[in-house]
Amino acid sequence: MNPVQFSGWRLGLKLLSFGVLGLVAMAGAHAASLSSTSTSPSTPSAALLEQPLTASAIAEKALGQYAVRTWNTRNGLPHNSVNKIAQAKDGSIWLATWEGPVRYNGQTFQIYADTAETKMPEAGALDVSMSPNQQLIQVAGTRGAVVRFDGQRWDYVKVGDGYIFETLIDQQQHFWAASTAGLYQVDSSDQGQHKLYTQTEGLPADFTFRIHQAPRSYRENAGVWAGTRLGLAYYHAATDSFVQEPSVPATQVRAMLTLANGTLVVATDEGVFFQRALGEPFQPWPVPIKDRVTSLVEGPNGCLWVGTFTQGLGRFCLNSEQWLSVEDGLPNSHINDLFKDRDNNLWIASHGGLVQLRNTLFSSYTQTDGIKGNNVRAIAEDAQGAIWIGTNDGISRQQGDRFVAVAGQSDTNKVSVLSLARGSEQLMYVGSYTSGLLQLSQQGLSASLTAANGLDSNEVRIVKVLPSGHLLLGTPEGLKLVAAEFGKLTVLDSLNSANGLPGDFISSITIDPNGGIWLGSTLTLMYLRPQVADPLAQLATTPSFNLWQPEAVDLPAFTGARNVFAGVVHQQRLWFATDHGLITRPLASDDWRWLSRRDGLPFDKAFSINFDSNHHLWLGSSQGIARLSRQTLDGWLNRRITNISYQRFSEADGMVTRQLTTGGPASLVSDSNQLWFASALGVIAVNPAQAQANDAEGNKPEPVLLEAINADKQLLLAPQYDAAQSVDDLQLTPTTKRITFSYVSMTYAMPEQLEYQTRLVGFDDDWINRGSATAVEYTSLPPGNYRFEVRARYLGGQWNEPTGIKFSQQGRFFDQRNVWYALVVLALLLGGVLGWRLTSKR
C-alpha cells in the first residue's frame, strides 16, 4: 500500500495529509527497475532450502495454471483501487476502497458510499477487518474514522485527525489503531479517551503503518508489534511503552505475518526478515526478493505469497520461486493487500481492481506456455510419457511445465495437424490437412506419404497404429492400409464407396477386442466385420481389407445421431460420441442404447469420449466437459434411472475455454492417468482423482443465505453479523401486497455454475426452478401460515439442504376465514328465526 498513491485518488484532502504521506512514498518512488516477471519455476538455491517455511511448502502447480478473475468499476466496484480485504462470518468478502466499504456475496457488490449511513466523515476506507468474535465489521479510513457494522447499524468512533491505516483487537481485548500521528489504544466507549503512543512512548517514529498480534509472547514482549516509518517495535506491557527491535532495519515496515509454524515475517523497504521464535533476532529472508513487498500471506500448503510495488505477485516455496505479473492477467502490478479466504482462494487488492487467484481443477496450456498455435486438434503421448500437441500451426512437445515446438525441419514448422498417433519406439505419426502423413523420429522427419506417392489427397484426418505395426488412415476418400517402416510408408490397400464401404469420409477409427473396425463419419457409423479369426494378426501375411466385410449401422433405427466423432471400448461395451449424445452397445450383442438430452445430458454434440481409471465417463463438447459417474452410468444402463446426473466443467474450473474441438484424438488418457482435452484456445488437463474427490454428487455449494426480506419495499431482514440468523415467524400485516426474498449461496469457486430452486410451503409445495436468479417475489398472498425455502446446487449436481424461514400473512377482518364462518352461521340463524316467525304468524 502506498499512501501517496492513495491520496492521489482523492480531491480536497488536507495539505497536511499530503505532506505526511509523502514520507512513506519516497522510498517506493525510488524502486529500481527490475526484470520482468515470470511464471517459470526457478531452481531453488541452497539458501532457499534453509528458509523458515514448513516442510509442506511445495508448489504442486505452476503459478500460471491458477485461474485468475478480476473485477473493476465495469463489474460493479465503486473504485479500481482496493486497499484491504476481509471475510465476514456469513462468508461475504469485504473490501476497503476509496469510495467506501464494499460487501461482495459472490454475485453482486453492495457499496456503502453514503457517509450519512456509515457515519464516516469521508467515504474513503483504508482498512477493513472482522472483530475477534466475528460479530462486527471494522472499517478505518481518513480523518480519524473508525466505524463498526453489525449488519444493520454503523457506529462511529473518532480516533485523531489523520489516516487510520490498520486496526487490531489484541489478545487482551485492547483496541489498537495505527495512524499517521502514532499508535492509538482506542477507548470504544462514549468517553472516547484514547491513548496515543508516539516516539515519546518508544515508537521508532510517530507514523505507524502496521499493527500485528503474534500468537505468543516472550518475556516482556506481549506479542503486539508496531510497524512504523522508521522500523519495528514491540509492546512492553509492564511499562506500557514500546521497544524498538534492533535486528530489523530502521526503515518503513510494510507488512507483518505469523506463519503456521510460529515464524514471524516482516516486510520492510530494505527487504523481508523473519524471526523463528520470539526473543531471537530477525534474519534476512534466505533469498532476495526482487521488489519492495507490500503484503504477505501464507498459502494453504505453507508457501509464502508476497505482493509488491511494481512486480505483481510472488510465491516462495521450498522447491520454487514464481511470479505473476500484468502480462499473466493481473490488472495492475501494485498490490495493496493479499487475503486467503476459508476455501483457500487467494484475493488480491490492487490499484487495478479486485483479483481472485484460485487453484482450479483443470490446468490450461496455450501459446504463452510454448504451444505452437492455440487451435488444438490432436493429442498424443510418446514412449517417454511426454504429451504431443497438434494444432493448425504446428506440433509441440511437452517439456516439464511447458511445451516446445517440434523443430528441425521445415515440414513440421507450419503443418496443419488433424491427427497424432504414437508408433513403435521413438516414432510419432502426424495426419495433416495439406501435408499428408508424416513420420517423425528423434532426428526429425523420417518419411512422408502424400498424393504424390500413394494417397488420393493430402488430407489425413485420423491415424490408427495397429498391433502389427500397420497403419489405418481415415481420409475424405475412404480408408487406407499402410505398411510403416522407419523411413518408409507404403499404401497396401484402399477401401471406399467404390468397393463396398458405405461412406467415404472417415473421421474416427475404433478397434474392438474381436478385431472389428468401427468407422465414424459425418453421415453414419460403419462396421468392418471380421471374416476370419483374429484379422489384425493375419495382416502380417495378408495385408488386405478382404479380411473384413464392410456394413452400415442402421442409426435411424435407434437414434437421431448421424455424425460420429469418436469411439472407445470400455468394459465389454462400445461407446461413441456423436452429434446427438452417446450411443453404446455390448460387444456381444446388437442391443444399442442412446443417451441424449432427453435423458439429462447437458448438450447434444459430444466431440470426445474417455473413461478414467475409476470408470467415470468424460465427454468433451463445444459447451464444456461433462463427467458422468460410474454409478450414474450403471443406473442408466440397468434402467434404474431415466434422468442422469453429471458434473459439468467450464472456464470457472480453470479451462481456458469451454469450446473443445474435434480431432484425432481430441482427448487422451495418459499413462499417468491424466485426462487431456483439445480446445480452440489450447490444451486442457485434469487429474480425474481430484475430480472424484470434488464430485458434484458429493460436492454441494455453501448453504443458501437469506440476504434480505422486503415487504412492500420495507426491509424486514438483513444479513446478521453479530449472530446466526435467528429471525423466524415473521408477521406480515393485512395490507402487505408484495414480499420479496433475496438469497445467495456464497460460493466463490464456481458461482457461475450455481442454480437455485424455491418453494413456498403452504402455497405451492413443489420446487420451482429459478436458474441463476437470486431473488423471488410473491404478491397478494391469501391469509395463512407459510414457510419459504430455497436451495442451491452446481449444474448437474445434488441440491444442498434448504434454508427456510416461516412467516404468516394476516388477513383483514373481513378476509379472515373465521369471520366468514361466523357470518354464515349468523345468516343461517337469522334465516331460521325469520322462517320460524313467519310460520308462527300463519
What descriptors fit this protein?
842 residues, mainly beta, 5-stranded mixed beta sheet, 4-stranded antiparallel beta sheet, 8 helices, 41% strand, disordered N terminus, phosphorelay sensor kinase activity
Q: Major beta sheet, specifics? A: 5 strands, mixed
Q: In percent terms, what proportion of residues is strand?
A: 35-45%
**Shape category:** flat
N-to-C span: 102 Å
- Walk across the major sheet and give the strand order: 59-65-64-61-62
Percent of residues in helices: under 10%
Rg over CA atoms, rounded to whole Å, is 34 Å
Give the integer mean of the pLDDT values.
87
GO molecular function: phosphorelay sensor kinase activity
Protein name: Two-component regulator propeller domain-containing protein
Keywords: Membrane, Phosphoprotein, Signal, Transmembrane, Transmembrane helix
Signal peptide: 1-31
Short note summarizing the structure:
By secondary structure, the protein is mostly beta strands. The chain is built from eight helices and 65 strands. GO terms for molecular function: phosphorelay sensor kinase activity.
Layout of SSEs?
Blueprint: H1 3-8, H2 15-29, E1 67-71, E2 82-87, E3 93-97, E4 100-104, E5 109-111, H3 115-118, E6 125-130, E7 137-141, E8 145-149, E9 154-158, E10 164-169, E11 175-179, E12 182-186, E13 195-197, E14 208-213, E15 221-228, E16 231-236, E17 241-244, E18 253-258, E19 264-268, E20 271-275, E21 283-284, E22 293-298, E23 304-308, E24 313-316, E25 321-324, E26 335-340, E27 346-350, E28 353-358, E29 362-365, E30 376-381, E31 387-391, E32 394-399, E33 402-405, H4 410-413, E34 417-422, E35 428-432, E36 437-441, E37 444-449, E38 462-465, E39 471-475, E40 478-485, E41 488-495, E42 508-511, E43 517-520, E44 525-530, H5 535-538, E45 548-552, E46 564-570, E47 573-578, E48 581-586, E49 593-595, E50 608-611, E51 617-621, E52 624-628, H6 630-637, E53 647-649, E54 667-669, E55 675-679, E56 682-686, H7 688-693, E57 704-711, E58 714-717, E59 730-732, E60 738-745, E61 754-761, E62 764-771, E63 775-779, E64 784-794, E65 803-809, H8 817-841
Parallel strand pairs: 59-65
Antiparallel strand pairs: 1-28, 2-3, 3-4, 4-5, 6-7, 7-8, 8-9, 10-11, 11-12, 12-13, 14-15, 15-16, 16-17, 18-19, 19-20, 20-21, 22-23, 23-24, 24-25, 26-27, 27-28, 29-56, 30-31, 31-32, 32-33, 34-35, 35-36, 36-37, 38-39, 39-40, 40-41, 42-43, 43-44, 44-45, 46-47, 47-48, 48-49, 50-51, 51-52, 52-53, ...
